User: Fold this.
Amino acid sequence: MPVMKILKKNLADEVTWQYDGEVLRREENSITVEAFFNRDDMPFQEIVLKRNDRFVETFYTDRWFNIFEIYDCDNGKLKGWYCNITKPAIIEDDSVSYVDLALDLWVSADGKRKVLDEDELEELGLDDEMRQKAFAGLRELEQYFESKNPPR
Assistant:
């Protein structure tokens, strides 16, 4: 499978984090890649993100979010879904880039949902249209998880 460079950007279109992911599936308006957590172990919500945890990440060109399914590196069990509210992704031949809008949704493996970083979203000073799109993306994500049918 081809390898894609994943580029997380800020509002100024500057790359703030990058890593490689192997393409699992590519569709007209989305791409799903497999990547491995490349930072030291860190507590997050009720779990610990561990170096080499498996991330199955789906990016969309027509939605205001991406979804990372996270699996434990030791036992392969699903830890949960980390969802970034973003501008729609730009998928090119060898890269996927997205502008992170700070707001996040964490969904644990048992389905509990928590909205994160609303304060960071406020600090971005988005215009009304961008704020509305960000919150519409969050509502769309919450509906997927309420229906117990997260997008794959």
Summary: The CA atoms of residues 86 and 101 lie 5 Å apart. The chain is about 15% helix and 50% strand.
